[in-house]
Amino acid sequence: MTDSPTARHVPAPADRNTTPWRVVLMCALLMMLDGYDLSVMGLALPAVAQAWSLEPSAFRWALSASLVGVGVGSVLAGLLGDRFGRKATLLGMFSFGGAVSLATMSTTSIDQLVMWRFLVGVGMGGAIPNVIALVSELVPEKRRNLMVVVVYSGAALGGAMGSLLASVVIPAYGWPSVFLFGGAAPLLLAVVAWRVIPESPAFLLARQTAKKAAALPLSGEPHTDPSPETPSGVLALFQEGRTRTTLLLWVLFICTQAMVFFVQSWYVTLLERSGIPLDGVLRTFSLWDFGALIGGVAVAALSSRMPLERLLAVAYLAAAACLVSLGQIQNLSIITSVVTFLTGFSVVGASLCLGALAASHYPPAIRASGVGLGLGVGRVGAVLSPLLAGSALSAGWSNAQIFSAAVAPAIVAALAVIALATTRRSPSTPSQFE
């Protein structure tokens, strides 16, 4: 058996001990540039609007196009990652996003800009599920959730890096310069990553097992199962007792993204509406980002001591309490700052952990598909919640009413994650896959 293809492709334990840290670092760098490219349109918008003599509001679809593209790319790349490998799909989609960012420099109209931004979203969004799957399969189980969140958080750091870079290069070289960096840097990093990042041993093992199973009828060996090949693709997410798990994860992705994008879209407007000066609201809202980064890492670190589902249930209930509290704010105070920080800690902290949670519920053969479909379906909440909040605002709802309505996704998510925890005890849902 030691000469089998599977044995030759799966690294020995000693190799796996030296691999994870370099993979985590490289994947974190990939996610930083991913986050940069997805956020750079907002940074370049004032300069583009000025150069083209247009109102910033004319670019609203250019700002939204990448968000739609991320959903499409996540689903597409999740399926491709399970079929062709995490490494090839990750770096292929990432390089595609970089190439499209370079093409954005030549755009001369809003329609072209919308098209390029959608394609950037497809490429960079497609990198996300395969990064999560790859890291979850190469990092030791004890540190898996933490490392997935640390890597995923690189996107937030990339956005912050973009703000600093844009403040320097746009005044000096014009708006195309930020897209030049957003294209050239990913293409160069992809070349380095190809040499540094290995393919997932779990994926290689699953593929070899599927090939051997498919070859059984040809070898004359007993064959009683009409479908021996390991299931893959979307349908596999609903087979072998996984329907309940998949639906609950989709509910979690939708509800969590609904809360994240509601707060990001309307926090500043709603608090300013209550009479609080804009500069104070903006300074206070920065605590949301700090809370988000700390929350994701803290929840993931604690997951080595207790089930991640239990921690997320607490986070969602805390988010519900924070949202109710935000609706009562009439002026800035220490309490406002604390509540804003805790909202980011709980809401975005939970969001950063969902990739690790989904990866832990699927076997390697469909892990990238499970994560990618979850991220893609979750975009329903990302799109709908800001629209519904805007409609409520137009209808004359008070801040208290709008924030209280936003509690509904938090409660639904808490119930869903509690129900999800029971699937680990189900005989049809194995708890370990490697």
Q: What does this molecule look like?
A:
The chain has 434 residues and is mainly alpha-helical. 79% of the residues lie in helices and 0% in strands. The chain folds into 2 domains: 10-196, Growth Hormone, Chain: A (Up-down Bundle), CATH 1.20.1250; 235-423, MFS general substrate transporter like domains (Growth Hormone, Chain: A). The protein contains 17 helices and no strands. It is globular. Residues 1-18, 218-228 and 426-434 have low confidence and may be disordered.
Which terms summarize this structure?
434 residues; mainly alpha; Growth Hormone, Chain: A; disordered C terminus
The averaged pLDDT comes out at 82
Structural class: mainly alpha
**How much β-strand is present in the residues?**
under 5%
Number of domains: 2
Alpha carbon gyration radius: 22 Å
Number of strands: 0
Order of helices and strands: HHHHHHHHHHHHHHHHH
Approximate shape: globular
CATH third-tier fold name of the largest domain: Growth Hormone, Chain: A
Question: What gap, in angstroms, lies between the N and C termini?
Answer: 19 Å
**What's the total helix number?**
17
Low-confidence runs: 1-18, 218-228, 426-434
Query: Quick one: biggest sheet?
Result: none
The CATH homologous superfamily name of the largest domain equals MFS general substrate transporter like domains
